[in-house]
Amino acid sequence: MRSKKLQVTNAFHSKLVDPLMDSLEASARNLPFKEPTIPIWRATELGSCDTFSPKFVADHMRSPVYFNHAVQRLARQYPSCVWLEAGSASTVTNMAGRALSNPTNAHFQGINITCDNALDNLNDATLSLWKAGCKNISFWGHHSSQTAEHAPLLLPPYQFEKARHWVDLKKVPQPASTQPVAEKETLPDNLLTFINYRDSQSRCARFRINTAIPKYERLISGHVIAETAPICPATVQLDLAIEALRSLRPDLVSSGLQPQIQGVKNQSP
Asked: Using CA atoms, how far apart are residues 45 and 63, in angstroms rounded to an integer?
């Protein structure tokens, strides 16, 4: 069985407070009891509609709390309602929700205003109540009853001035170079330049495609993809491979043999 030690001065709602009942009732006789302006439900076993009296104060200290009985009676009379905590940082709304198995047609709102972020919690509780349908709840941080406590503050008008926020682009000065200027490389005339063989049997040749010459630019200028930049089409790539083979074997032209290309892999750019 789960239990929790309560921070109380006496063992309320038990026989240990029986010696205090007479003196408490006697003290309550000096208090004026009026009719409540809102309905008040007592946490008794069968429910009670008796008027408040000095005897009620003593019985309230001694009698057991039938919390579940009172919650069930309220839920039967108000099946769709908002359960709002009239206190701070207690577990009463959670207890009510567990007693009713957290029905979907009811809202349980706890309040915690006894901590450092009390105002933020009050704001969250107000928004939660608005979402639950309580449209007549005003923002408690600026309640209408406290209007006289606040003086209106008239702020000066703000003139929108046109301001330029762009930063001017400045060219970075080039440092003076003391190294000799290299001679400009002479571009080749042909599309292909033989580099070397990649194997000892001279069967795997490597060529360089001269993409900087005007002839190459004319071949690819009409093949622009997605309005970005031209790319070399597959037909031009095949022609370059055939020309590279003929440059290695010029005898193929005189013999009338036609080269064949196999195992081509074309990857997307």
From this structure: 10
Burial 211-227 (b: 16+ CB within 10 A, else e): eeeeebeebeeeeeeee
Beta strands per DSSP E along the chain: 82-84, 107-109, 192-197, 205-209, 224-225, 229-230
User: Rounded to an integer, what distance in angstroms lies between the CA atom of residue 110 and that of residue 12?
Assistant: 24
pLDDT digits (tens, 9 = 90+) for 148-157: 777 777 766 6
Q: Are 65 and 13 in contact (CB under 8 A)?
A: yes
Q: Compute φ and ψ for 204, nearest 5 degrees.
A: -120, 100
**Terminal Cα distance for the chain, rounded:** 71
Q: In sequence order, which ranges of 29-77 are alpha helices (DSSP H)?
A: 54-62, 67-77
State the DSSP code for 269: -
- Nearest in space to 92 (alpha carbons), one of 122, 119, 57, 67: 67
Whether the CB-CB separation of 32 and 56 falls below 8 Å is answered with no
Find residue 84's DSSP bridge partners. 109
Q: What are the pLDDT digits (tens) for 66-81?
A: 999 999 999 999 999 9
Q: What angle in degrees, to the nearest 10, is found between the helix axes of 18-28 and 54-62?
A: 150
Secondary structure of residue 209 in the 3-state scheme? strand
